[in-house]
Specification:
about 140 residues, mainly alpha, 6 helices
Length: about 140
């Protein structure tokens, strides 16, 4: 009797693994795995985030900061995910961001954390007007 039950369970498992329901589920999962291509701006902002994570660590460890990355200036020309987001407000915030980012490399050491946080808050302020999704992540850059 145990052998028959065991055999029935094995057969049921094999049949269920080959059922059309599983195959259609697999196909729908495959379709859901379509990769999203990031815009130039999204890629630039990812790079800016990583650069500023490293900069934060250098500030906290009182290490040499290096120099301003000229790649950041591409914020003025990078293609946005939604071209209509390039508004006067965006242009104003992007200019302020570049100025605040550059200032990190020129302020006295005792003002460094404050200037870094000013730059981060510029990012937050811009994202409050458009594309608010990354705000919690951006706020993690703040030095407390």
């Amino acid at each position: 009797m145990k052998k028959i039950v065991f055999f029935a369970v094995i057969c049921a498992s094999i049949i269920s693994c080959n059922s059309p329901e599983k195959k259609s589920l697999k196909n729908s999962q495959d379709e859901a795995l379509v990769m999203y291509k990031l815009s130039e701006m999204a890629l630039l902002m990812e790079e800016m985030y990583v650069t500023n994570e490293k900069l934060k660590e250098k500030i906290l460890n009182q290490e040499d900061l290096g120099s301003f990355s000229e790649k950041f200036v591409n914020i003025h020309t990078a293609v946005l995910t939604d071209a209509t987001d390039r508004t006067a407000s965006f242009e104003s915030f992007s200019k302020a961001l570049i100025a605040n980012q550059k200032a990190i490399y020129t302020v006295p050491e005792d003002s460094l954390k404050t200037q870094f946080n000013t730059m981060v808050n510029t990012c937050v302020a811009c994202h409050e007007t458009t594309c608010s999704g990354p705000i919690p992540r951006i706020k993690k850059l703040l030095i407390h």
